[in-house]
Amino acid sequence: EFIFVDLTSLKSVRHFVQKFRERSLPLHVLINNAGTMLVPERRTEDGFEFHFSLNYLSHFLLTNMLLDLLKTSGRQGRCSRIINMASATHYAGEINLEDLNRKAVYSSHGAYSQSKLALVLFTYYLQEQLTSGGFSVTVNAVDPGMVDTALYDNLWTLAQMMKKPVASILFRTPAEGASISVYAAAASEMEGVGSCYLYNGQKTQSSDLSYDSELQAKLWKKSCELVGLQA
After folding, report:
1. Which of 3, 78, 115, 147 is most buried as measured by Cβ atoms within 10 A of its Cβ?
2. What is the mean pLDDT of the chain?
3. Banded pLDDT at 177 (limits 50, 70, 90)
């Protein structure tokens, strides 16, 4: 069964949560997978930079609005799991909390890497809050590597032509890419394990900036302000 949600619209996210709650179902796994890359500069209906809203802010709102269900569905020895789709581009990511819409200087790659860094910062901060609260919910960031999907459709024409022969050799298939998320969501060895950055199913060091606890807290507070949640 599917429920439609448009992650470029915070209104749509709230509507989705309402529809899901009407089903009175438990929630054991939340995979924040949807994303976009290299989109020319544009704003969402809420006025946010496109990558920041779709790749991060809507996932932030969605996760927080479903967090109570994840908490009540998890138990010791069978934690609920949140998986955030990261990217190696986060290593180059920078975040200016006073210009999250990147109005001063815009590049689509910079906007994408910022959104992915935000997801990793969010992953670590949320896990800290859940652990300190004693909740049986784990949060991990997953980097699937290069996967041959429509994510690359915004490459310029020559790059598109060059990508095609390379993708069959170096890129993962969609099924192979998805297997990394499935591992994080279902593997027994990941039970009770959180605050990890997983690449190829292996725990990997994320960027130095992603471990900045002060930045994590500031981004959380700012994100709450932007979506209208209490910090």
Report:
1. 115
2. 90
3. low
CA distance 148 to 13: 27
Decide if 183 is catalytic: no
Residue 16 counted as domain residue: yes
Per-residue pLDDT averaged across 2-19, rounded?
A: 98
> Quick check: is 4 in a domain?
no
Choice among 91, 106, 112, 124 that is catalytic = 112
The verdict on pTM exceeding 0.85 is: yes
Per the structure, the count of domains in the chain is 1
Tokens of 229: 């949640």
Domain that holds residue 171: 10-227
End-to-end Cα separation, the chain, in angstroms: 33
